[in-house]
């Protein structure tokens, strides 16, 4: 190779290699400091697109799980009202039978009627209970159903029933109105009405339990899906610290070597001066 002053090819090549090494070193430092394998979109354009979609799916998964947890709370609150209604109806059934006792005076049956009417009012109040402003029980005879999405993409859904006792407008309607136990015939009719209401209540509690069970399994599936999505996204987006640390050590050595060689290349042109002396 000829000797020249204007052009130092060795220094140019060394500088180019050093710049490339510095760029890779900085990239390695960014990956390790951020924990991300993809720092810029140019690092892995396709992988970044997939990772972004998976990240969005994970967030939707969390939102769906939150909705299901709220639906579970709704159903638990509804079932709590069912439990109370069961106690009320059982007491009303007991009162209706007690009122049929021929040894009771009209004053006795009047006392039973007073408590019976009070419990009817309590059932009406239970039927008006709400959860976050949403009626726990249907306000129309056709009933009411709240649809809850059980998957992050909304492709699967389940209906959470907002039930009404025996299909009426509130829980007291089946045994309200003219139902009274002040007379023998009235007490007999009331006992039959309350018995029917208890049967209807048992059916609704079973429905409530089945819906809660399904939502529980849906929550479990969402948790499994989230774990799998996070694992898949991690393989794409997260840096392998062990491998990247090895690359960092390699780039550090190359940087030191490149700096030393550039220094040597810059000094080599000084040999020309010896020819001129």
Textual characterization of the structure:
With 277 residues, the protein is mainly α. The protein folds into two domains: 42 residues; 159 residues, Up-down Bundle (f41 fragment of flagellin, N-terminal domain), CATH 1.20.1330.10. 69% of the residues lie in helices and 6% in strands. The chain is built from six helices and four strands. A two-stranded antiparallel sheet has the order 1-2. Strands 3-4 form a two-stranded antiparallel sheet. Strand 3 and strand 4 form a beta hairpin. Helix 2 packs antiparallel against helix 3. About 2% of the residues have low confidence.
Brief overview, please?
The chain has 6 helices and 4 strands; from the N terminus they run αααββββααα. With 277 residues, the chain is mostly helical.
Please describe the topology of this protein.
Elements: H1 9-34, H2 45-98, H3 106-127, E1 130-131, E2 134-135, E3 144-149, E4 157-162, H4 184-237, H5 241-268, H6 271-276
Antiparallel strand pairs: 1-2, 3-4
Helix pairs in contact: 1-5, 2-3, 2-4
């Amino acid at each position: 190779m000829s000797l020249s002053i204007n052009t130092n090819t060795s220094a140019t090549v060394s500088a180019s290699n050093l710049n490339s090494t510095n760029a890779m070193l900085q990239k390695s430092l960014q990956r390790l400091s951020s924990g991300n394998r993809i720092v810029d979109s140019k690092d892995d354009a396709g992988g970044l697109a997939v990772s972004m979609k998976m990240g969005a799916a994970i967030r939707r998964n969390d939102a769906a799980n939150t909705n299901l947890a709220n639906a579970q709370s709704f159903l638990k609150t509804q079932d709590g009202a069912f439990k109370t209604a069961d106690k009320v109806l059982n007491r009303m059934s007991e009162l209706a039978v007690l009122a049929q006792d021929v040894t009771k005076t009209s004053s006795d049956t009047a006392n039973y009627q007073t408590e019976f009417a009070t419990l009817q009012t309590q059932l009406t109040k239970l039927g008006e209970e709400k959860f976050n402003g949403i009626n726990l029980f249907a306000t129309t005879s056709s009933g009411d159903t709240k649809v809850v999405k059980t998957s992050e993409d909304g492709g699967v859904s389940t209906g959470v029933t907002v039930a009404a006792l025996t299909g009426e407008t509130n829980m007291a309607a089946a045994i309200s109105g003219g139902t009274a136990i002040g007379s023998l015939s009235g007490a007999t009719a009331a006992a039959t009405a309350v018995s029917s209401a208890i049967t209807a209540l048992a059916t609704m509690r079973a429905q409530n339990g089945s819906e809660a069970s399904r939502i529980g399994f849906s929550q479990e599936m969402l948790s499994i899906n989230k774990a799998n999505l996070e694992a898949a996204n991690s393989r794409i987006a997260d840096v392998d610290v062990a491998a990247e640390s090895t690359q960092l050590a390699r780039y550090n050595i190359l940087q030191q070597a490149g700096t030393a060689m550039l220094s040597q290349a810059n000094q080599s042109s000084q040999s020309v001066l010896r020819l001129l002396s």
